[in-house]
Amino acid sequence: MKERFSSNKHTMSPRQRIINKNLSPYFLLLPACVVLIGLTIYPCLYSLYLSFHTWGGGINRPLFVGLGNYEEIFRSYEFWNALRLSGVWTGATVVVEFLIGFAVALLLAIEVRGRKIYRVLVMVPMVMTPIVSALTWKTLIYHPSVGIANYILSIIFLPSQAWLGENSTALLSIVVYDFWHWTPFITLCLLAGLSALPVEPYDAARVDGASKWRIFVHLTLPLMNKVILVTLLFRMIDAFRTFDVIFAMTGGGPGRATQTLPLYIFQTGLEFFYFGKGAAISMITVIIIVLLAFPEMKLFHRKT
User: What's the CA gap between 173 and 142, in Å, rounded?
Assistant: First the structure.
């Protein structure tokens, strides 16, 4: 059989060998391309198609309404409220997590005894499944009767709170959980950037008598700008599309106090069966994410 294979190989013309060599990589990529088209590209194109139609499911065909869904969305108070909450959620989580994560990364970059153990402990929240950790916080920390948060309040003689059941505290409670869960991600990204910085500029700055603050402002931040931009971009996109944690902890409530855009899309499309309107909100969300990411990408390319 080996001899037959070698004889077939030798009988190929040079043109056939070139064609086989050029096409073989595409055949290897074909299964991945099929999966990508089936699970990503086709659903996106179908959502775009559905956003111009009204459809409640079933055997009835979608009815074309043009820009009717978009017009109804922009006139809706629920949409603007969800957009506002998404902005508050994204801004609060990204900014605070970046500040805390950068501070922790700077501390973990210092050469101290047991540094590897500290790094492992800091990364523990990030490796937990978000939905599991969110339900754990809801049950053990924010429970109105047996939660740790209200127990701490009782120790200092403050009244108990319905952390996830009141409009004034629901969103803040989820934001605090998100600090705990995703700050390690920013810490890990920034710590990797700090570990890759060259040593020579720092040695020269210390010889010149520069203070730690001046070294941080004039050396660390400029050298870390690309890492910072990429980290903020990834975290901003991920925060803006957060669904699972908010759904598990409050379901968008109480009322609409935590109904961000992903929750609004879910409730519109999959709870009330306004599939066309839900698809239109999804398209608007994609456009908003692109508009938010574009300045950072432009700044990143400018610095390169």
Answer: 8
C-alpha closest to that of 82 among 266, 287, 244: 266
Backbone phi and psi for residue 54, each to the nearest 5 degrees, phi listed first: -115, 135
Give the CA distances from residue 6 to residues 2, 19, 198, in Å, rounded to whole numbers and listed in that order: 6, 18, 53
Tokens 């409220």 found at: 81
- Ranges assigned E (strand) in 205-289: none
SS3 64: strand
- Residues 38 and 40: their CA atoms lie apart, in Å, by 6
Give yes or no for a contact between 54 and 65, defined as CB atoms under 8 angstroms apart: yes
- What single DSSP character describes residue 145? T
Cα dihedral value 51, 56, 57, 58, nearest 10? -140
Partnered with residue 64 across adjacent β-strands are 53
pLDDT reading at 2 higher than 60: no
Give, in order, the Cα–Cα distances in Å from 74 to each of 83, 128, 280: 11, 38, 11
Contact in structure between 304 and 229 (CB atoms under 8 Å): no
Run of H or E residues at 197: none
**CA-based nearest residue to 81, from 280, 291, 260:** 260
Contacts of 220 (CB under 8 A, 6+ apart): 194, 197
What is the model's pLDDT at position 5? 40
Radius of gyration of the chain (CA): 26
Q: What is the pTM of this model?
A: 0.85
User: In this structure, what token pair is assigned to residue 170?
Assistant: 């629901």
Residue 239 near residue 93, CB atoms below 8 Å: yes
**Residue type present at position 137:** W
pLDDT for residue 25: 76
Rounded to the nearest 10 degrees, the angle between the axes of helix 115-127 and helix 170-195 is: 140
Q: Is omega for the bond preceding 130 within 30 degrees of 0, making it cis?
A: no
Residue (of 140, 114, 102, 103) closest to 235 by Cα position: 102
